[in-house]
């Protein structure tokens, strides 16, 4: 899991966040809340659940109000143990609770057969309409094209992006790839993908509404999957599905087939109970 890597930890530092090592490669990150100068600690390591005392020391020192952990696994026994130990299920997570993962360890023909018929059709349609996909070999030069596409996408779909610097630093992380689907010289869709160990993970994407009839995102992801295969990756993780929050995006991702994976979600351990209650109430009534 790329979230556990030393590269990801360095990325957190590069965007101005403090990290704290707990030994054996395990770390937590300090994240700011948008009010009263408050902050919390965050991690994806399941091992953090057994390091509560060390975490509390860091929390006291850093004056953070809770620890949020989102392990990328599902274990009912663990969920029961967490509740008994004072952890509380959070309604606000940073990482997806469900995703869909395509097994790349099969011939391209089999991958296509595993897709929905409309997805295969749209891939062929994009090819017929002259869409071409290329990987950027100069991410610094091409970053502005991605950022402009992302701004248009965020405005159209009404979601908030990270800062511009966040994406620029992300592309500096070892293993990230930047891809564009273009019609002639015009970029119409783009994606940032993380290659780590045996998995290529789709992190961020953008597309042009004006050129939506080209069906470029379908061909974009199909070409990325093929490129990942050539690099020896075994899986392609679409990184997040949710029918209620992102119905259109979820339909799109499911169209490529694959297996759906469920995680236990987000759990909080309050270290300043009154401020944690304020945090919960703000999330409920905002």
Automatic annotation (TrEMBL):
<keyword id="KW-0573">Peptidoglycan synthesis</keyword>
<keyword id="KW-0133">Cell shape</keyword>
<keyword id="KW-0012">Acyltransferase</keyword>
<dbReference type="GO" id="GO:0008360">
    <property type="term" value="P:regulation of cell shape"/>
</dbReference>
<keyword id="KW-0808">Transferase</keyword>
<keyword id="KW-0961">Cell wall biogenesis/degradation</keyword>
<dbReference type="Pfam" id="PF02388">
    <property type="entry name" value="FemAB"/>
</dbReference>
<dbReference type="InterPro" id="IPR016181">
    <property type="entry name" value="Acyl_CoA_acyltransferase"/>
</dbReference>
<protein>
    <recommendedName>
        <fullName>BioF2-like acetyltransferase domain-containing protein</fullName>
    </recommendedName>
</protein>
<dbReference type="GO" id="GO:0009252">
    <property type="term" value="P:peptidoglycan biosynthetic process"/>
</dbReference>
<dbReference type="GO" id="GO:0071555">
    <property type="term" value="P:cell wall organization"/>
</dbReference>
<comment type="similarity">
    <text>Belongs to the FemABX family.</text>
</comment>
<dbReference type="GO" id="GO:0016755">
    <property type="term" value="F:aminoacyltransferase activity"/>
</dbReference>
<dbReference type="InterPro" id="IPR003447">
    <property type="entry name" value="FEMABX"/>
</dbReference>
<dbReference type="InterPro" id="IPR050644">
    <property type="entry name" value="PG_Glycine_Bridge_Synth"/>
</dbReference>
